[in-house]
């Protein structure tokens, strides 16, 4: 049975057309062009093969082409399954041990060899996310000849995974609009600029000392020589090392969003989240929208790092969140089946006796992002005029990446002598959009004595202003005019609900005081982004909660209002007792199966619980299955050079090139008391992504046509 999401409150269902393919001895179906990894997950397959070193089960981790967890054989070729589409008749096999080379008579024939001549361009942009797109647009308008390359099959980067409304400035970066729509808005201008070329499915794999950039574009290896280079390759998710972290079912929150929001696949039945930044908080909300239970979320710090409005909406829906907690281990036979968490002290050491275990099938790791900037460092080393924008320069929200790209584009144009100075306001706007969550103030609900009025539960300084832009009578304002300050209501209210519809944090509701002349009941207008199959059916009695998820009482759903101008957000009318009208901010969701997330553990951890690995020596390097003890032994033997460590213990020797383990290795050095200045960094060399030898050699399969 396919595990596809048939109904979603924000996303349209996928087409019914299917193609047939095989995985081992199973005949399966997939959507045309769907990534192999997504097609396997849609068919309930989460174990893609077994590692040649120790037979450990392999599945997904990043679903972004940055690791090698999802390796399979596609028509006999080893490939990252998240980067290769399914086609009719495709044969996919698990990699059981080291893949064997094809027999000589089975190898494909080659009709010709193409010369790898350099392509000269004025500007090369690596990365088609918001920063790369906006930089290309600025350069294109200035008259520069631009080549924009991205390894995916469409532009937009991670915007294509974000179904929620964005924060920031309405006028500067489309705040209040959903990320999936911003991707289209930003991209639509590029085809109108004839001096911009776009290569999709193009991976930049190396920068060379002769100032050439190697790019694999649709199985052709091309050397590009730019006059100026922009690296806007975004970020990769950081990893964690703990017992069971390598089990299938333990993967990045971004990978989960790819499966659920891009491909509409029910990737899990019940999950747990590690990390309280915006990525983890938003992933939890997206899971609930897809009808997936969220057993809880842990954050190692005393408070979450993400926006409070994201935290509040998750807690209002009933998801328990524990700060100063961590995951101790994940257990299961060949896949995640349960996770054990515990409280930690000020030194991040687990507190004995605080363990609790949850039965889950997925554990999402959302512990931060790292800039993908290695190509920029090599380009600078070899003297290419190089600029960096977006998350490749500094980890921030996508709204900040938009302006980062615009500024980089103007600077590059100025470098080429094509345009004048950057508007002074741009620098200020970029700084504001990059700002971290600021001061929190207590929420004080005040009844202004109006028949209808908004309650704005935005109590943290964050860059956001959609509510002030949309109020038709200008009654919501930011007193000091700075969009990082908190909005206030003063004046009259028409009860239109536009502020409720546009608030990215779902932090505004309306109170209708004249709903009941006897004032025994009041009507609340709440933002709602769930299918009625989850909850919120008219006539349903629900358990109401306050702003931070604490119980208040009961309410009754009266109706759902849905209009085009609400951008796929419905307004839910909830009847509550008059005395509770200022306290109620939402209600807990009841997921399919009647499961109620009340914050209790499924069971206490016991001494009989064992890790998937059979010990507490976790995997650090997933590609080569290198354990923590092997790294510790090498460090204690005196190794301080990461290149030597790589040769001796093999971390970073696998398909990801150290993308997932390098920071974990540095953490172990710190644990062992080795200062960073004592460590010789590893050398970044081409190729930074796997490239078939035949592609590098310029070989053209006999059934392909050679480009002219």
Biggest sheet character: 7 strands, mixed
Helicity, in percent?
A: 10-25%
Task: Give the termini distance in whole angstroms.
Answer: 46 Å
**Which class best fits the helix and strand makeup?**
alpha/beta
Q: What's the number of helices?
A: 16
The radius of gyration is 26 Å
CATH domain class name of the largest domain: Alpha Beta
How many strand elements? 37
Query: Under the CATH scheme, which architecture of the largest domain would be assigned?
Result: 3-Layer(bba) Sandwich
* CATH-defined superfamily of the largest domain: FAD/NAD(P)-binding domain
Count of all domains:
4
Please mark out the parts with pLDDT under 50 across 5 or more consecutive residues, or reply none.
592-600, 606-614
- Kindly report the CATH topology of the largest domain: FAD/NAD(P)-binding domain
Give the overall form.
globular
Strand portion, in percent? 25-35%
The average pLDDT score comes to 91
Care to describe what's here?
By secondary structure, the protein is of the alpha/beta class. The protein folds into 4 domains: 19-97 and 239-365, FAD/NAD(P)-binding domain, CATH 3.50.50; 118-235 and 372-434, FAD/NAD(P)-binding domain (3-Layer(bba) Sandwich), CATH 3.50.50; 452-529 and 536-587, no CATH class; 619-678. The chain has 16 helices and 37 strands. Strands 9, 10, 11, 12, 13, 14 and 25 form a 7-stranded mixed beta sheet that branches. A 7-stranded antiparallel beta sheet has the order 26-29-30-33-32-31-34. It has a 5-stranded mixed beta sheet with strand order 2-1-7-5-6, covered by helices on one side. The two termini are 46 Å apart. The model is unreliable at 592-600 and 606-614 (pLDDT under 50).
